[in-house]
Amino acid sequence: MKKKRHQKPVTKQLFSVGDANAPFSYVEAYKMLCTNIEFIAAAQKCKSIMITSSLANEGKTNISVNLALTLSGYDKKVCLVECDLRRPSVHKFINSKRGVDGLTTVLKGECDISAAIRKVTNTNMHILLAGSTPPNPSELLSSEKMGMVVKALEEEYDYVIYDTPPVLLVTDAAALGKYMDGAIMVISHNSTEKNIVIKAKKNLETAGVKLLGAIYSKYSEKSSGSYSNYSAYNYYYYYGSGDNAGKGKK
Q1: Distance CA 125, CA 170 (A)
Q2: For residue 66, how far is the Cα from the chain centroid?
Q3: Is 173 exposed, middle or buried (0-12, 13-18, 19+ CB in 10 A)?
Q4: Does the predicted model carry a pTM greater than 0.90?
C-alpha cells in the first residue's frame, strides 16, 4: 500500500508594486487607482476604504496590500487593517509572523491599538494584523469598539485600507461596512459570474455600504502576448449605483 504524500501548504504570493522588476503597466494600474481614489476624496470623505470580493481567491488581499503600498508612496500616511479574522493572510504577503497582538486583541480590550500596529520599513505604511481567531468575527466587526477603532485610525492616517472577507461567504464585510466611507469590490477575470457579482453588490447595498467601484483582477497578460509573469489589475469604477454601474471604464 502506497503512502499518501503530504501536500505542501499553498503559500500566498504577492505581486508587489515595490518590486524592481514589476512591469510598468502593473505599477501604473495601481497609480491610476490611487488617482481615482484621490478624486473621490476631494469631493467627499474617503478615508476608510473596505476591499472585498464576492467569493474567495479573487485577489482582494493582494490588491489591499498593493493599494496601501502605492498610496503610501504618494507621501500619504496609510494603515492596512486585516479584517479577515477567519482566514487571515496579510502576514504571509509581508513575510511576517501572525503574532498575538492584533485587531481582535484590541477589540477585546487586551491590547492598546498603538501597541498592535506595526510600521513597514522604508514606507509611510503601517499594518494592523488580525490577531488571534475569535469565535464571533461578525459581532466584533460590528461592535461599538470597532467603530471607535475606525475613528481613531482616521484621526491618525490619511487613508485606512480594510481587507475584509468575501461578501457571499460570511456577513463580516457587511457588518463592518456601516463604519466605512466606501467599499471597492474585486472581481476575478474569467472566473466570477455576473449573477454572483450582482448578488454581492446587492448584499452590500442592503447593508448600507456605499460601493465606490470595482477592480477587475487577475487578467493574464500572457494571454495577450505579454512577457510579464505578473497579473494586470485593470479596473472599473463608478459613482453612485444602479444604471451607473460599470460606466467610466479605465
Answers
A1: 28
A2: 9
A3: buried
A4: no
Residues in the chain with pLDDT < 70?
Answer: 1-16, 18, 20, 95, 98-100, 219-250
What is the C-alpha to C-alpha distance for residues 63 and 233, in angstroms, rounded to an integer?
8
pLDDT tens digit sequence for 195-217 = 999 999 999 999 999 999 999 88
With cell 510600521, the residue in question is 119
Q: The domain 46-244 is classified under which CATH number: 3.40.50.10090, 3.40.50.300, 3.40.50.920, 3.10.690.10?
A: 3.40.50.300
Positive or negative: CA dihedral 144, 147, 153, 154: negative
Are the C-beta atoms of 233 and 26 separated by less than 8 Å? yes
Distances 9 to 6, 12, 18 between C-alpha atoms, Å: 9, 10, 26
List of residues 6+ apart from 2 with CB closer than 8 A: none
